[in-house]
UniProtKB/TrEMBL annotation, chain A:
One of its GO terms (cellular component) is cytosol. Transmembrane segments: none annotated. It comes from the Bacteria. GO terms for molecular function: oxidoreductase activity. This is Fe-S oxidoreductase. Residues 11-92, 140-224 form the Cysteine-rich domain.
Automatic annotation (TrEMBL), chain B:
It comes from Thiocapsa imhoffii. GO terms for biological process: lactate metabolic process. Keywords: 4Fe-4S, Electron transport, Iron, Iron-sulfur, Metal-binding, Repeat, Transport. InterPro entries: 4Fe4S_Fe-S-bd (IPR017896), 4Fe4S_Fe_S_CS (IPR017900), FTHF_cligase-like_sf (IPR024185), Helical_ferredxn (IPR009051), LUD_dom (IPR003741), LutB/LldF (IPR004452), LutB_C (IPR024569), NagB/RpiA_transferase-like (IPR037171). PANTHER family: LACTATE UTILIZATION PROTEIN B. This is Iron-sulfur cluster-binding protein. The keyword rRNA processing does not apply. Pfam families: Fer4_8, LUD_dom, LutB_C. Residues 301-331 form the 4Fe-4S ferredoxin-type domain. GO terms for molecular function: 4 iron, 4 sulfur cluster binding; metal ion binding. It comes from the Bacteria.
Length: 261, 469
């Protein structure tokens, strides 16, 4: 009997490149949440990146090569799950488009897309979880990252899970659905415009009086946290997975390195 | 209008430092966004209307040749003339010829983005004609000697104070700053001109194939005066503006005002069909329509057809964070914001407007408000793809992508490099916990710190840990 037939889905963890390098804690938090939810977790070695840097720069050929790599590494699992709306929106929407001219690969891309989930939506929409049993003391505000919000319809799921966190109060900011200015390589290609957008975002964050900013995409969080640090503004920034898993205990993003593992 | 899109980066930088521009942009954006949202909330079938409008537009575009023929026949039957212009130069020539033939001296103009697209004002003035813009926003920027910065609010980049200064200089004192006084002052200045005009030029929001009519919407009524009081009325419009029937136009009208200004409907909706008939009380002696192609049939045939659904409402730019940060002039041509970032490279050239498709975070807010559901971010990405395949993308960037591909398609190499980078960055930031300058990451560290990573990557820790257990 396979594990999945006993009701324990085999999940391949999608390790985003930024998370792997800058914030392993998000990976451990994601793993903890999935395992506590009863998943059998595997971290495939054959993965690197979802391919968006190529796709969004117009290099479809390279994006296709990366998409094939992800498909090969993950198609054996019941699900692909990752802590990023951006990467997951790409896997779900862009991959099938990339293989429009190759029916066999297109079918495999569509099959993978159908079982690929962003973490919070997987917990809520697929596993039906409403509580993660963690505690976090603080007043938080939540930034809706664009790809997750508009690409995958992620809005209620993280909030629903955060509502079950003891000690946490959520205070919504104005324009939470407006872009923070990260935009992948946009933030380094057009830094001045990007900084204007993140300063607008920070103004809305600060206006809530919250002491912590949460979000579901490390790119956006590094953008806001990096700017907050540069401006010497005190504000904790965590990925929502860290809070949900009860692992938001060490220094927040940009506040110094976390001890490994 | 000359193309300045290659100056995007420097223009954007200037705009970011222009305090009155920033003030004007903040005000305008908040108003547009809130008013549209209120209208959408009021109309439960708004989403269904968007879907219907997108489908109807696709149907029209599929049969565009057919509808255009019907339209031409109907215009002729009503006593008007249709002129076909392949490009901007031909459009200018057609209009100059008409003006010369009727011995025109003064031309009044209602707001028309196509006339900006074909550079009409410059051509008319060069030919010795007096050109009077009658739309308040266009009138303001004409006084300022500037180009429009928004497709429905051409002077949106001006603060009220700046308008007051312009009016004082043009009309004499006393200086007035109340909006109603400013509107009044413009009306007074324009009134006489309508009667002087030999030719009145307007745009055309919709061209009705069934009746051969042109339909315009305005909030000031200036379009009506422009087209009824002049001896000759010339409509300029893109070939994609045709719709089958008046009834079809109402579908778009319900979406247009709500999306554009957050009104239920514009103040004036005016339909004109042919020249004045014997028993008409007023109207022009001649009625001409100049149908401009200027790259549109090329769009129709290729992967960018969806862009021709555009009804020029401006919602995409009102909701675009980049437009909101830098305003319309940074885009360097007639059409700014998301729709302009698609149109300008397609009409003027992918190389001459390189930055436009790239200066976008692909956040998708534009597409989520577009009344005809144009997938603007997808089109921008496709333009990037076209730039990449035509080697317009800068060499350095293509080199970086090639290197990234070599590494990213080899997991062992990729992971090894990430491990090395993690160690280096961790050492660099060990003392302070923050990285203020990182070699090769200037674009990032220009205004932000880089978080100091842990010395070991997630994959490293994970496999180390799991192998132990
Ligand atoms: S692209 Fe859509 S939102 Fe933008 S102006 Fe055209 S119709 Fe309006």
């Amino acid at each position: 009997m396979t594990d999945s037939s006993r009701g324990r889905p085999r999940v391949g963890l999608f390790v985003t490149c930024l998370m792997n390098l800058f914030r392993p804690n998000i990976g451990f938090a994601t793993a903890k949440l999935l395992e506590e939810a009863g998943c059998r977790l595997v971290v495939p070695q054959g993965q690197t990146c979802c391919g968006q840097p190529g796709y969004n720069a117009g290099d479809e050929d390279s994006a296709r090569a990366l998409a094939q790599q992800v498909i090969l590494a993950f198609e054996e699992f019941d699900y692909l799950v990752g802590p990023s709306g951006s990467c997951l929106a790409s896997i779900r929407h862009d991959y099938p488009l990339l293989f429009a001219a190759a029916p066999a690969w297109r079918a495999r891309a569509e099959a993978l897309a159908a079982k690929s989930w962003e973490l919070t939506s997987f917990l809520v929409d697929v596993l039906g979880i409403s509580q993660t049993g963690a505690r976090f003391d603080g007043v938080v505000t939540y930034h809706d990252s664009c790809s997750g919000l508009r690409g995958l319809g992620i809005k209620g799921q993280p909030r629903q899970l955060l509502a079950g966190i003891e000690g946490l109060t959520l205070r919504e900011m104005a324009e939470t659905e407006v872009c923070c200015g990260f935009g992948g390589t946009f933030c380094v290609k057009y830094p001045e415009i990007s900084l204007k957008l993140v300063d607008d975002k920070i103004q809305n964050v600060l206006a809530t009086g919250a002491d912590t900013l949460l979000g579901g995409d490390l790119g956006c969080l590094m953008q806001v946290a990096g700017r907050l640090r540069r401006r010497d503004l005190p504000m904790r920034v965590y990925h929502v997975a860290e809070v949900l898993a009860g692992l938001a205990t060490g220094p927040s993003i940009g506040e110094g390195p976390l001890a490994s593992g | 209008m000359d193309l300045h899109s290659h100056e995007f980066q420097s223009r954007a930088r200037t705009a970011l430092h222009d305090t009155s521009l920033q003030q004007a942009l903040d005000q305008a954006r908040d108003g547009f966004v809130a008013k549209r949202a209120a209208q959408v909330a009021e109309l439960s079938e708004f989403e269904a209307l968007r879907e219907a409008a997108a489908q109807l537009k696709d149907h029209i575009l599929e049969h565009l040749d057919d509808y255009l023929e019907r339209y031409e026949t109907a215009v002729n039957a009503a006593g008007g003339h249709v002129h076909w212009a392949r490009d901007d130069a031909e459009a200018r020539r057609i209009i100059l010829d008409i003006c010369a033939r009727v011995d025109a001296r003064t031309v009044t103009k209602g707001k028309s983005m196509v006339s900006e697209e074909i550079g009409l004002n410059e051509a008319l003035i060069e030919a010795g004609l007096k050109v009077v813009e009658t739309d308040l926003g266009e009138y303001i920027i004409q006084l300022a000697g500037e180009a429009p910065s928004h497709i429905i609010a051409p002077a949106v980049h001006k603060t009220r104070e700046q308008v007051a200064d312009l009016f004082e200089a043009a009309h004499g004192g006393p200086r007035r700053t109340e909006i109603s006084d400013l509107v009044d002052a413009a009306r007074q200045a324009l009134r006489g001109r309508y009667f002087e005009a030999d030719v009145g030029i307007t745009g055309g929001n919709f061209l009705i194939a069934e009746t051969g009519s042109s339909l315009i919407v305005t909030n000031e009524g200036n379009g009506d005066l422009t087209q009824t009081l002049a001896r000759v009325h010339i409509v300029t419009a893109g070939i994609e503006r045709v719709v089958p029937t008046l009834h079809d136009a109402t579908l778009f009208l319900r979406l247009l005002a709500r999306s554009a200004t957050g009104q239920e409907t514009e103040t004036y909706t005016t339909v004109s069909t042919g020249p004045r008939r014997l028993d008409d009380l007023d109207g022009p002696e001649e009625y001409h329509v100049v149908l401009v192609d200027n790259g549109r049939s090329r769009m129709l045939a290729g992967p960018f057809r969806a862009m021709l659904r555009c009804i020029r409402c401006g919602a995409c730019m009102n909701h675009c964070p980049v437009y909101g940060a830098i305003g319309g002039h940074a885009y360097g041509w007639v059409y700014p914001g998301p729709m302009g970032s698609v149109l300008t490279p397609l009409i003027k050239g992918l190389d001459l407007a390189y930055d436009l498709p790239n200066a976008c975070t692909l956040n998708g807010r534009c597409a989520s408000v577009c009344p005809v559901k144009i997938p603007l971010p997808d089109l921008l990405r496709q333009l990037r793809h076209a730039q990449f395949t035509q080697a317009i993308t800068p060499r350095r960037q293509r080199g970086a992508l090639a290197a990234w591909r070599v590494v990213a398609t080899r997991p062992w190499l990729y992971h090894a490099l990430e491990r090395v980078v993690a160690r280096i960055l961790a050492r660099l930031g060990a003392r302070t916990g923050r990285l203020r300058r990182v070699p090769g990451a200037h674009g990032w560290t220009l205004g932000r710190d880089l978080p100091t990573p842990a010395a070991r990557t997630f994959l490293e820790c994970w496999h180390h840990e799991r192998e132990k257990s």
